[in-house]
Amino acid sequence: MFELSDKPLHTGALRAAMTPAPAAGALVVFEGWVRDHNEGQPVASLTYEAAEALCRSEAEKIFAEAREKFGISGVRVAHRIGHLPVGEVAVWVGVTAAHRDAAFQGCRYVIDELKTRLPIWKKEFATGGDARWIGT
Amino acid sequence: MTVTVHYFAMLRDATRHDRETRTTTAATPGDLYAELAQRYGFTLPVGILRVAVNNAFTSMDTRLREGDEVTFIPPVAGG
After folding, report:
1. Architecture label for domain B2-73
2. Which of A14, A20, A109, B37 is the most exposed place for a label (fewest CB within 10 A)?
């Protein structure tokens, strides 16, 4: 399950949506937060934008790969779009599996692949007001 | 041939459009990008972009067809 949200992510609700999962013995959750600095520069806020249809299909590929490689049982990702202040949750990843090794490895795989493959862009706003797209 | 081009992030800033319908003689997305780079002064080299046609990732030398929806993907930074 992959979703893009222009509203703050409710991590409790996202976690609750992972259950029931009677065959799962482990849930690993990763949250990415908006940090107040990047590459030595202060950051006041940022915006994310996404190519939605492409994100969805690519996320499903990544989930299938994680199931295949690690035997995870469930995976859910929510990613923010829009304007986010420092401290906000930018991305939430939850992965369930029968055992913790698969859940840890699967969660790591999903977030690492998402970051490099999903068509999502981030513009950082410095405290001075300067803005720049990250990644170029 | 007429195609629709979708712009995101720095490419949208450069073109000031989310999308445009464009008549072109470009045979491939790579050719189309070269044409657009000249028109809009894109500074991103084509080698660091990915491209999707009709919402599926493909290569810069795939054959374009009438009515294709082309999305150029500048370097991403999710998460």
Report:
1. Roll (3.10)
2. A20
